[in-house]
Amino acid sequence: MRLLLLGAPGSGKGTQAVRLKDHLQVPHISTGDLLRAEVAAGSPLGLEAKEVMARGELVSDAILLGMLEDRLSREDVAGGFILDGYPRNLAQAAALDALLTRIGQPMDHAVQLAVPVEMLVERIAGRAQDEGRADDNPESVRKRLQVYEEQTAPVIEFYREHGQLTVIDGVGGMDDVFARVVSALQPVHPVG
Ligand code: AP5
Question: What is this structure's pTM?
């Protein structure tokens, strides 16, 4: 299965992707994680991305597309994948569509985790205390939420218009949200 997870910062994409990858037995591809790995490695790409990410802005479309093409060319995605963090604007959505058409692997599902903004801020504040992620400070979080509203929210409409979108209530315990997502993916992958 090829599954796209959409949602604002803090909506639980990464949390659910970790569970879904075990359930679906496909790799989890997070563009945020790929970028953070580049930053940690101190690669030229990482050096370029580091400050942009810390400010809560989007890294360039060209860098992201190159990274994604590279990741999707690996053998482990032959049976599907869970994509989290991409696309984040309409140009990326069009690029992804073209890339998946070219490699003959169209997206099966696009799932949006819907969470009110106060709860997003609360969750990210909790993670800031636990993990200290560089972009989880209040100023960057404000920027990330603004970027989401302005650039990423139209992507949701893109998938709605293509008849691929399922909106899931992302409020509640992590297990409850997981059960809702799995049930939305049925009958292809029933629980148990
Ligand atoms: P990225 O890593 O994608 O960050 P994000 O979208 O801001 O997402 P988060 O990781 O904050 O949220 P999430 O939805 O995964 O929630 P999570 O499960 O972690 O991107 C970071 C940066 O990289 C971007 O700002 C940009 O600069 C760059 N970038 C990445 N992709 C890009 C692209 N395509 N183009 C350009 N630039 C790009 O949960 C959050 C917290 O809530 C956790 O602590 C978790 O434990 C908790 N939580 C989760 N679910 C629940 C629940 N049900 N109940 C209670 N707590 C919960």
Answer: 0.96
Q: What are phi and psi of 77, to 5 degrees?
A: -95, 5
Question: How far apart are the CA of 77 and the centre of ligand 1, in A?
Answer: 22
Q: Which residues, 6 or more positions from 186, have their beta carbon under 8 angstroms from its beta carbon?
A: none
What are the distances in angstroms from CA 103 to CA 89, 107, 111, 122?
21, 11, 22, 40
Instruction: Please name the residue whose Cα sits nearest to atom 5 of ligand 1.
Output: 9
Tokens describing residue 28: 């989890």
Query: Distance from the CA of 86 to the center of ligand 1, in angstroms?
Result: 11
Instruction: Write the pLDDT tens digit of every residue in 177-188.
Output: 999 999 999 865
**Pocket of ligand 1, candidates 35, 133, 180: which has the most ligand atoms within 8 Å of its Cβ, to mutate?**
35
102-132: pLDDT as tens digits: 999 999 999 999 999 999 999 999 999 999 9
CA atoms within a 13 Å half-sphere pointing along the CA-CB vector of 15: 21
The single residue of 55, 133, 160, 180 carrying the catalytic annotation is 133
Specify the residue for token string 């059960």.
179
